[in-house]
Amino acid sequence: MSHNGFFGPFGGKYVAEVLRRPLDELQVAFENAMHDSLFLEELRIMQRDFIGRPTPLYFAENATKALGGAQIYIKMEGLAHTGAHKINNALGQALLAKKMGKTRIIAETGAGQHGLATAAACAKLGLPCEVFMGEVDVRRQQPNVAAMEMYGAKVIPVKAGTKTLKDAINEAMRDWAAHFDNTHYLIGSALGPAPFPDIVRYFQSVIGKEVEEQSQERKLDIAALCACVGGGSNAIGFFSPYIEESSPRLIGAEAGGIGPGPHENAVRMSGSAAKDGIVHGYKSRFLLDDDGQVAETRSISAGLDYPGIGPQLASLGQKGRIEFRAITDNQALEALQFFAKHEGILFAMESAHAGAVALQIAKEFPKEKAVIINMSGRGDKDIFITSPVFRPLEWEQFLQSELDRLKNGTDIHYAESLPTNLKKELENK
After folding, report:
1. Annotated catalytic residue: which of 108, 130, 254, 264?
2. Which end of the chain is more exposed for a tag (fewer CB within 10 A), N or C?
3. Residue among 2, 284, 299, 376 flagged as catalytic
């Protein structure tokens, strides 16, 4: 837990006076809930029956043989309901908000997985839901946008700034400040003003607790845990049982983007570009320009392009307990392909960054050691990102044929599979 909302020099509650009351109210409600056996039992049952916990700890035998060195294991959070770890926190916070008497939920989302999880949790609990999402992320994560709307959520495109996650957070905070009497802001990562980092870590710690139990049952000798790090919700939950221990190695994969230059990545901890700063109500490490403004970031992964990092992870990185590595877009794509072809498992682009770290370090350890990857989500959502990379012509043909069908109002059963011009291209490929 934090100390008065701080993890070393990072954290805190740097907000306008209007938000201190709802944050204090949330702190009290959270602490009470953690000692409420009825709340905890209700949460446990929903974790089991709605989320599908525990998720498997899978031995990647083929990958292990291909790489040599340590045994590769994958914590399959992509098999949780809604396809990612985000549902752990979304369900916990939504239940807490309902117990507090809140009648409206708002959330921010980047890759869409938190928005999707929040929408599903709110549908389950009968709460109206609005999700703020950067316009850029709306475009590149259309499958998740469609699913959120199917669950009954209203998706609000944010057109300010870079039109990505940081701007979605800004808009959500503005909304909360104006409507906190009836509204709970269900933040999606282990960041923001206190007590959000503690709350999110608690609800996500179910991942690490399961890993600890599952690895003990199998008598695994864990050498390293690998997790991707945007804000840090899956990483801090995954690492949580081991934070106070000297081993195993805890490795966070950051978005190396397309290169090491300014605006080419979202590297906060493994490079030298980040600075201490206060953004979104908390102090941490951020990518800031010379004027102290949040700098633009870049990543193939919509969930990893946040310019800051959760305060607890920043503190643990500063202390050396967690090591960070920058993984480029291309390295993540290579890891995605590797695990798909060797294990039949399709990582989300975020999780593929963690997979890339495992590929790098596997040979550093003997075969009796284990390296565990947190597959924070599955890759279905990224089809509009990965298909143009791996099968560009076929993807173009599919999109064009679908556009033609929709324009012509043709029933899918009677539509031509491909437009004539693109069919010829494929035949000549």
Report:
1. 108
2. C
3. 376
DSSP 380: G
Helix (H/G/I), strand (E/B), else coil: 60: coil
Which candidate, 58, 55, 60, places its Cα nearest to that of 359? Answer: 60
Average pLDDT over residues 260-278: 96
Summarize pLDDT for 203-244 with one digit per residue, the tens.
Answer: 999 999 999 999 999 999 999 999 999 999 999 999 999 999
- Which helix H or strand E contains 347, and what residues bound it? none
Tell me which residue has tokens 């279905």.
Answer: 380
- Domains in the chain with CATH codes: 6-50+83-197 (3.40.50.1100), 54-82+204-383 (3.40.50.1100), 391-428 (no CATH)
Q: Please check whether residue 180 is in contact with residue 22, taking contact to mean a CB–CB distance below 8 angstroms.
A: yes
pLDDT at 87: 98
Q: State the Cα–Cα distance between residues 137 and 297, nearest whole angstrom.
A: 13
Which pair of tokens denotes residue 153?
Answer: 């959520």
Distances (CA, A) of 331 to 84, 163, 167, 267: 21, 25, 27, 15
Contact of 108 with 83, CB cutoff 8 Å: no
Residue 205: in which H helix or E strand, if any? helix 196-217
Element (H, E) at 110: none
First to last CA, the chain: 58
**Known catalytic membership, residue 376:** yes
Q: CA–CA separation, 60 vs 49, rounded Å?
A: 26
Q: Is 86 a catalytic residue?
A: yes
pLDDT band at 149; cut points 50, 70, 90:
very high
Q: What percent of the chain has pLDDT over 70?
A: 96
pLDDT averaged over every residue in the chain: 95
382 CB neighbour count, 10 Å cutoff: 28
Is 13 a known active-site residue?
A: no
pTM comes to 0.94
pLDDT tens, 305-364? 999 999 999 999 999 999 999 999 999 999 999 999 999 999 999 999 999 999 999 999
Phi-psi region of 277 (alpha: psi -120 to 50; beta: other; left: phi over 0): beta
Q: Which of 2, 13, 77, 86 is catalytic?
A: 86
The H or E element containing residue 77 is none
